[in-house]
Amino acid sequence: MELTAAGKVAIVTGASRGIGEATAALLLASGAKGVAITSRREENLAEAVERIGTSERLISFAARADSEEAADATVQAVIRRFGSCDILINNAGTNPSAGDLASVDLGAVGKTWEVNQLGPLLWSRAAWRHYMSDHGGAIVNIASVGGMAPSPIIGAYNISKAAVIHLTRQLAMEFAPSVRVNSIAPSVVRTKLAAALWEGIEEQVAASHPLQRIGEPSDIAAAVMFLVSDEASWITGINLPVDGGVTGATSVSSIGG
Fold first, then answer.
1. Would the pLDDT of 158 be above 60?
2. What are the angstrom distances between the C-alpha of 198 and each of 63, 192, 208?
3. Which residue in 61, 113, 128, 157 is the catalytic one?
4. Closest by Cα among 161, 45, 42, 151 to 112
5. Which domains are seen in the chain, by residue range?
6. pLDDT greater than 50 at residue 254
7. What stretches of 155-214 show up as alpha helix (H) in DSSP?
8. Alpha carbons 110 and 241: distance in angstroms, whole number
9. What is the pLDDT of residues 123-157, one digit of tens each?
10. 25-68: per-residue pLDDT in tens?
């Protein structure tokens, strides 16, 4: 089985590094007609483009994940440039709200929820309105295993990712049959966003995963590639854990310890 994005046009939000950058690079390598990456800062996008490799098939937009205007403008610009918007990867995320829910700063909570929960809806609506409702497509939302079970300190983040998982199911129902919507739930991945969860304690964190390593951005990108490919044409509304076995191969006696 060869996964291909040949002839497809994709938007990847939050793609100036980590999972988003790896996903954009893989889509291009898999034959995508065009890939647009977004991030808040132009300089970060320029660095990502340089790492991925400058190409006429790769464009970038400085766009906020929680802005309806930015989502609409980006989708429309991508369609003008490449002629379609077949794939949307809602990867942009943030987590400035560490702390117990009883005391965490509510401003930080609001920012977390706006980017992580509202953002995927805004970009999905834009893709639907401007292209996918008439032509079909595939959407993948990047959730988290934190959205499947509670954990200390990052409760607001976990709640936002639980919302993404349910948003995925809701949109899969509403956008069917022409648009497939799925989500991926990573565990700890070697990214800047997740650095506080693994830097300095990598061996300990790796040991907590049945497959004995933390994830790499390429692990998530590969799963995204499958879900947007024609090989997954009968799959919609699912949340796929890509987590080194944390949710599927951990004994009950090891939970919490």
1. yes
2. 29, 10, 11
3. 157
4. 161
5. 9-241 (3.40.50.720)
6. no
7. 155-175, 195-198, 202-207
8. 26
9. 999 999 999 999 999 999 999 999 999 999 999 99
10. 999 999 999 999 999 999 999 999 999 998 999 999 999 999 99
**Virtual torsion, Cα 141, 48, 42, 55, nearest 10 deg:** -100
- Residue-averaged pLDDT of the chain: 94
Listing DSSP states for 31-85 in one string gives TBSEEEEEES-HHHHHHHHHHH---TTEEEEE--TT-HHHHHHHHHHHHHHHS--
pLDDT in tens, 181-225: 999 999 999 887 777 776 777 888 888 899 999 999 999 999 999
Residue showing tokens 């400085």: 62
Are the C-beta atoms of 38 and 92 separated by less than 8 Å? yes
Q: For the packed helices 155-175 and 119-127, what is the interaxial angle rounded to 10 degrees?
A: 20
Peptide bond into 177 cis (omega under 30): yes
Tell me if 247 sits within 8 A of 49, measured CB to CB: no
With contact defined as beta carbons under 8 Å apart, do 185 and 243 qualify? yes
Active site residue 131: no
pLDDT band for 256, please (50, 70, 90 cuts). very low
